[in-house]
Amino acid sequence: MKSLDEFLRDAEVAHGHLCAGQVLGVRLAMLGLQMLGLDDPRGADRKRLITFVEIDRCATDAVAVVTGCRLGKRTLKFRDWGKVAATFVDLRDGRAVRVAAKESSKEMARQMHPEIADKNQQQMKAYREISHEDLFTTQWVKVDLPPEELPGYKGERMVCEVCGEGINFQRGVQRNGRTLCRACASEQYCQPA
Question: What domain range includes position 79?
Fold first, then answer.
């Protein structure tokens, strides 16, 4: 596995800048992989890992850089819970670990480096130095992954009976005996302008 500094350089390139969230995300992912015993998530272990991220911020880009997991590969799953946390699932044996940043790390960064006025710079420095135990909580968890959540799933494609758009991966909704997409079933995130 690459070093922290190597991953941070990669994360900076992928994300466009280096920030405290990138440092947290890199360290979070490195810890999750270490706990699962996955040394080469982009090579020999690349088909073994699915990662669930819980925030759509800087840390998620860093997690993707370290793990090699991507939305388009169906190995990166997003749950919008607003937490700097991720769950790493080893598909070979079903083991999974959730790693979450401790809120106390921000205060710890202030105490460690009061000489640094810029909060982001203060946290970036401290997040490199704080121990895993002080920076994160970890928990072994169970994740149920139905076949339609797995990479390579080739399920039946459905068509929404209202809008006519195709629906993949068993994401259709049954309402009054009709197959609907989530938008037509009143779960839309946008409205016609």
Answer: 4-146
Phi/psi of residue 137, nearest 5 degrees: -105, 145
Q: From CA 17, how far away is CA 20, in angstroms rounded?
A: 10
In a domain, 33, yes or no: yes
Q: Is 193 within the bounds of a domain?
A: no
Count of residues for the chain? 193
The pair of structure tokens assigned to 62 is 């860093």
Residue 28 belongs to domain with CATH number? 3.30.1330.130
Q: Is 84 exposed, middle or buried (0-12, 13-18, 19+ CB in 10 A)?
A: buried
List the chain pLDDT tens, one digit each, 193 residues. 899 999 999 999 999 999 999 999 999 999 999 999 998 888 777 789 999 999 999 999 999 999 999 999 999 999 999 999 999 999 999 999 999 999 999 999 999 999 999 999 999 999 999 999 999 999 999 999 998 888 888 888 999 999 999 998 888 999 999 999 999 998 888 888 8
- Side-chain half-sphere exposure of 114, counting CA atoms within 13 A: 1
